Amino acid sequence: MSIIFTAHCFPNVADVPSGRFDLVARSLHDQYGPLVRLQLLGPSVLVGNLQDMETVYRNEGRYPERYQFGLMQHYFHTRKKETLSMIDGEKWLSLRMRIQPKFMRTNATLQYVGQQDCVAADLVKHLGKKELTPEAQQDIIFRYVLESIGVFAFNKRLGSLDEDTMFDENKRKFPETIRLLFKTLANHPVLPLYRLFPTPAFKTVAKCMDFLIGESVKHMQQAFKEVEKQQAAGNLTDDKPNLITSLLMSDDVTEQEVIMSMSEIFNGGTDTTMMLLTCDAWLKNPQNVTSPSDFLPERWLRNVSGKREQPIPTVAFLPFGINTRNCMGRRFAEQIIFLAVAKIIQNFEVSLGEGSDDIQIMYEVFPTTTKAVPFLFKPK
Hints:
Elements: E1 2-4, H1 21-32, E2 35-39, E3 43-47, H2 50-58, H3 70-78, H4 89-104, H5 113-127, H6 134-154, H7 169-186, H8 200-232, H9 243-248, H10 255-267, H11 277-283, H12 330-347, E4 348-352, E5 361-364, E6 366-369, E7 375-379
Helix pairs in contact: 1-11, 3-8, 5-6, 5-12, 6-10, 7-8, 8-10
């Protein structure tokens, strides 16, 4: 194993564009081999070999630890709040096992299909407008995701796609705050000076999180009142499929745990799906994937038996994680995607507009693009 102690050992990384941490990982593997240990304010290991990665997954143990952003960790510490994504060990497993059954049951998302279908219909209505800029399209899709998650988390429409109010100051503030939060976390400081005094980055994160959690708590309290109203009227039963209702009626979960868990879902936090930087190294390796740099969407097609025509190693493509710390919101996320894609394909012929050739991938916590993708939606 090659061991790197200082940034002086990164000569091939200097020219990597900002935000391309995947290229940094690939460059380090090219220079030092399949196992690279970084010793920068703490040890970390980049694994470039699929067999080694399988070994890692098999030996995660009972309490796998999640990578934490120090700024977020410090925020929750100073606010004396505990969330599923910010705790580890036995405490994490206890909370996970108590709320997981409500999220992971096979019919957990089915009761939301009707509401979600209406949200997807609103998405199509907005995308069908003429002369939308790529940035406006991106904003509408972002709002669609927010509105969809609001249906799951709070069992109601939030109005993110309402014609008359979607550009009101309050409706704009939510997506703008989430973008600012991710942008700040993407430029996470190397030195944890925020532990000594409130740095500008920490102040930004704190302001964003205070607003997001505050809004989530407001919606949760409204949901609680609705549950109490139904209970008083005798209309509430233990087999009620609604996610909030089932959590609130559970004796195993406290009201505060429900609030923080649902807030994290809405704000994109709870064991959220994060793209491993080394996944790029695995998927771009010709030994693992045929013609990895070519655009071949048919590689993902499956035959009648459900197997891919071109095998792709399972361990190289796990968008929702694996084992006990996998993404609890997988079914919810997939339903949001499937409904949007189905509605768009039913209503439009989709193509790429001018300027799409020079778009690159970058990382702002999650993979994104250097600029908005210019989609063309031609009504059928």
